[in-house]
Every structure is written in structure tokens, then in C-alpha cells.
Design a protein that fits this description.
The structure holds 2 protein chains of 2 kinds. Chain A is α/β, with parallel strands linked by helices. By secondary structure, chain B is of the alpha/beta class. Chain B has a single domain, classed as PAC-like subunit (Rossmann fold, 3-Layer(aba) Sandwich). An 8-stranded mixed β-sheet of chain B has the order 1-3-6-7-2-8-10-9, sandwiched between helices. In chain B, helix 1 crosses helix 5 and helix 2 crosses helix 4. Chains A and B meet through helix 2, strand 7 and helix 3 of A and strand 4 and helix 2 of B. Strand 7 of chain A pairs antiparallel with strand 4 of chain B, so a sheet runs across the interface.
């Protein structure tokens, strides 16, 4: 509750920078960097980006098929090499949206050197703008570049206007579209993006040889015990 | 920092006016630009990719029946009215903004753009003289609109000793400063407003802009000539669930 006369900015604006103050300190901020300097191959088969807590936590990352090759701890970004598909997987879930363009810059070689690029993101179902009544627990929509053809994921309907995505998943596809390369983003609108097991999402990820962690113990997220 | 331009059209822009919205309170400038693009059926001529822009992705916000992607920073033109609009759908990253805006202006100068009009807004609580119009303007010495605006009797922005400050106005004053440095004619038009349903503010902004640029037919009612983009559907949320009635 706010006090009389108190001005509360809507939450959507709280992530943006303050342009009214002299923000000269931001000029000296260090740019994000990978922990290791490693050679990025010129011909990556697929680059998969998984964004959000649900995707990051439901996928088993300690398996022999996934080899951790690099990371940026400040933003919880990890890059894995997936041996079975000759592909690279980037998992990210905790970053400031203002840094998205810098993160894209960091990932640029992976994005441009890959034949196929797929990004996946989860969003709360309440953010899905539609006039139709949603009875589904998970709505899957796609955004694909002009050159994206014959993908098995093309069967999903296009994301209807005025819905948009922002951040890394958006940046990956934007960059590919800018370079006239193919890319596809899948948006999973789910009612419980962090807790429930989503079979539809798992089915899609299984096609890319991902394994899953067991269902999280819901009691830990309850308000019953600490 | 380098801007990556993807040109979809190589036409001549000599003599055009560039309208640039600053991401500000209530997004009034951006909403006004959306109205312009939609009403004039402007054509997308370029998109810009840069580290200075927060990425945004969706399908064309002005056309339902297309599979063209729309991104954060795009350039639209209307040949008939000799106007281009640089539509921004997210704020700029502060530390890269100066370089971004300088490069944009450089490109505009190369293309022969005549002048720049910046549309923005400021916090309603910053308006000191409450009986005056909520609109303010600021025009530099190179702009040809100065005499016209004086006839219209608009209220000029008050310049305080520390330079030009439009609180809540985003990069407007920064771009204005760059225009002065590079001798580019520039007009800032802004409205004092609050966050909320800012569609009426955008309509008023277009009305003010039209008084200077003369974009729409004077013989017809202005609001009847304005077309809201399809992306404004559900701008302030989804319809209420049927189950509650």
C-alpha cells in the first residue's frame, strides 16, 4: 500500500535505467566475459538456447552427453557441448534484461556459426494476450525467421500479435534474421512455469536428446516449512 | 560499438523529416509513432541491430496477415508526406546511447534528411505552471519551424542553468544536444503525463505534430484519419474471463 501523494512507478519500468540522474558510473562497468578462452568451431550443427528457471532446472546437466565447456557465473550462463548431436547448448536463467544485447554480443560466434539456431523460453500463461479462453496448461507458440523452412518445430502456430518476447531468446533470433539466416524461437506459456512438470515441453526437449531431473519436491516451495 | 543496418529499400531520403520517439513516461512518443506508421501505412525500409538496443521480437505489429518479424529498432517511410519514423520498441542501454544516437544521426545526414523531430514525455508532477498546456517544445536555431511555432503560441520548455533536462524524457535531451553539435535542425515536442492509458496522449501528440508538419488532411476530422495498429489490442490487458459473470 502506498501513502497519499506517493508516486509508485509501474513495475515494468523498474528494470530500466535512470536517465535523469548522471549515470556516468555505468560507463566504467566491465563487460561480461566467458570464464575460459576457447575456440568456437566454424560449423556448429545446432545451437540451442534454453532460457528461464524452469528449463534450466528441469534438464539434467550432469550427464555424459552434455559437457560443460564455458560459463559466465554473474548471469548464470552455461555453455555445453552436446556430443550426440554435434551441437551447443546455452542455458541461462538469471540476468538483467538491460544486459541482453551484451550477452548476445558474447554469444555472437555461436549464433552465427551454427547451421540451425533454436531458442526456447517459458513465460507465465497470464502474459499470453488472446481473446480466446485458454483451457490448456501450456500454450506453445513459434517465432521463426523468413529463411526457416522444414523444421519439425514449424508445426507450432506463430505467436499472435500483440505478443512479443524480449531478452536473449529474442536477441538470438533477431541477429539471425538480420543476417538472413534461419532461426526459430519457441515460447512456452505455462500456468506454473517453475513448479509443474510439463509433458509437452519435455517431449520437445527429448527430441534434442535432453534428460530430465526428477520432479521437484513441491513441499519445499510451500509456505508450510522453511 | 557499430550499428548493423539491414536495408530493405535504397530509395532517396533527401528532404525528409525524421520523427524519433524517445522511450519515456507512458511511452507517448512511441505510441504516437505507432499511430503515424499505421495511419500513413508507412513502409519498413530498414532494421537496425546494435548492442545499444534491448532485443524485442514479435510479428509485424501493423499487419495481422504476415509472417514478417518485427524487431526493436526499425525505420519506416512515407513518400507522400516525406516523413521517416525511427520506431524503437525498447529503451536504449544508457552506456551505449550516445554512440548509437551519433551513428543514427550520421546516417540521417548522409541520406540527406532535412530535420529531426523528437517526440517524448515528462512526468506530470514536474509541470510547474498548472494552468498552461501540458505540451512543451524546444527548437534549435537551425530549425525552420521556429516562426510557425511562435504563431501557434505553444509554451516553450524552460531551460534551467544546468542545461536541457526533460525529467522522464529518456534520451530526448541527449539527442537534441547531438543535433546541435552536428548543426542538424531539431524540434522536441513533449507532453507532461503519467503512466496509465496513454493512448489519448498519443492522439494529442499527433495533433500537435500535425500542426507543424501538416501530415493529415485539414478538411477532415483528424481522429477519423488515424488508424490504431493491431498491436494495440489488449494493450492494457486481456478481456475479463467469461467465468466471472
Amino acid at each position: 500500500m502506498n501513502n497519499f501523494g506517493e508516486i509508485i512507478e509501474p513495475s515494468s519500468r523498474t528494470t530500466w535505467e535512470d536517465w535523469d540522474e548522471n549515470n556516468s558510473s555505468t560507463d566504467t562497468q566491465t563487460n561480461l566475459q566467458f570464464q575460459k578462452h576457447i575456440e568456437i568451431p566454424n560449423d556448429i550443427e545446432i545451437f540451442i538456447l534454453l532460457e528461464g528457471k524452469y528449463l534450466a532446472h528441469s534438464i539434467k546437466q550432469n550427464v555424459c552427453n552434455l559437457e560443460l565447456i564455458n560459463s559466465v557465473p554473474e548471469i548464470s550462463l552455461k555453455i555445453y557441448k552436446m556430443h550426440s548431436l554435434e551441437s551447443y547448448v546455452c542455458i541461462i536463467y538469471d540476468y538483467d534484461i538491460i544486459c541482453s544485447s551484451e550477452i548476445i554480443h558474447l554469444l555472437e560466434k555461436y549464433i552465427t556459426n551454427s547451421k540451425k539456431v533454436i531458442s526456447m523460453i517459458t513465460k507465465p500463461l497470464v502474459e499470453y494476450a488472446t481473446s480466446e479462453v485458454c483451457h490448456e496448461e501450456c500454450v506453445i507458440r513459434r517465432l521463426s525467421t523468413k529463411n526457416c523452412k522444414n523444421s519439425s518445430l514449424s508445426k507450432y502456430p506463430c505467436l499472435e500479435q500483440p505478443n512479443i518476447i524480449s531478452g536473449i531468446s529474442a536477441g538470438v533470433v533477431c541477429l539471425r534474421e538480420h543476417l538472413d539466416l534461419s532461426a526459430l524461437a519457441l515460447v512456452f506459456y505455462t500456468e506454473y512455469p517453475e513448479e509443474h512438470e510439463q509433458n509437452e515441453i519435455h517431449k520437445i526437449l527429448e527430441n534434442f536428446h535432453f534428460k530430465f531431473n526428477p520432479k521437484p519436491n513441491g513441499i519445499l516451495n510451500s509456505n508450510l516449512y522453511i | 560499438m557499430e550499428l548493423k543496418w539491414k536495408k530493405l529499400d535504397n530509395s532517396n531520403l533527401r528532404g525528409y523529416t525524421a520523427v524519433v520517439p524517445s522511450v519515456a513516461v507512458g511511452n507517448v512518443g512511441q505510441l504516437a509513432c505507432d499511430l503515424l506508421i499505421s495511419s500513413l501505412r508507412m513502409k519498413k525500409i530498414a532494421s537496425i541491430n546494435s548492442i545499444a538496443i534491448v532485443p524485442i521480437l514479435g510479428y509485424d505489429p501493423y499487419d495481422h496477415n504476415t509472417i514478417d518479424l518485427s524487431m526493436c529498432c526499425e525505420l519506416y517511410k512515407c513518400d507522400e508526406k516525406k516523413i521517416i519514423v525511427l520506431q524503437l520498441r525498447a529503451p536504449l542501454v544508457y552506456k551505449y546511447a550516445t554512440s548509437f544516437l551519433k551513428q543514427i544521426l550520421e546516417k540521417f545526414k548522409e541520406s540527406g534528411i532535412n530535420d529531426i523531430v523528437i517526440l517524448t514525455s515528462s512526468y506530470a508532477h514536474e509541470k510547474k505552471h498548472i494552468m498552461t498546456s501540458p505540451f512543451r517544445y524546444l527548437v534549435n536555431e537551425y530549425s525552420s519551424y521556429k516562426n510557425e511555432i511562435q504563431k501557434l503560441n505553444w509554451t516553450e520548455h524552460e531551460i534551467i542553468e544546468n542545461g536541457i533536462k526533460i525529467l522522464g524524457g529518456g534520451f530526448a535531451s541527449l539527442l537534441y544536444g547531438i543535433c546541435i553539435e552536428q548543426l542538424v535542425p531539431c524540434l522536441i515536442l513533449y507532453k507532461y503525463c503519467s503512466e496509465g492509458d496513454n493512448i489519448p496522449d498519443a492522439y494529442e501528440m499527433i495533433q500537435y505534430l500535425d500542426s507543424v508538419l501538416r501530415i493529415f488532411n485539414r478538411d477532415k476530422d483528424l481522429s477519423s484519419q488515424l488508424v490504431q495498429p493491431i498491436s494495440w489490442k489488449y494493450l492494457y490487458g486481456r478481456p475479463p474471463p467469461i467465468g466471472i459473470y
